[in-house]
Amino acid sequence: MVKHAFLILAHNEFSVLEKLLYCLDDERNDIYIHFDKKLDQLPDFKVQRARLVVLSDRVDVRWGMFR
Question: Is the pTM of this model over 0.85?
Fold first, then answer.
């Protein structure tokens, strides 16, 4: 079985993110979400079949920024 990993960077538009997670919810998928550090309250998403990991090492992301 081929597995896929998805890394999603999120900071708003959580209704769109919820729809994306619904589409990616498959046992062959691992989904990693990085929520921008500027967020005070993290949304709580659930999936049924995929592995969902919310990254705990959050970074304040700026457009065009690099490290």
Answer: yes
| Of 43, 42, 32, 44, residue with least CA distance to 8 | 32
CA distance 52 to 29: 9
17 and 10 Cβ atoms separated by less than 8 Å: yes
User: How confident is the model over 7-18, as pLDDT tens digits?
Assistant: 999 988 999 999
Report the pLDDT value the prediction gives residue 23, as an integer from 0 to 100: 98
Q: How would DSSP label each residue in 32-57?
A: EEEE-TT-SS------SSSEEEE-SS
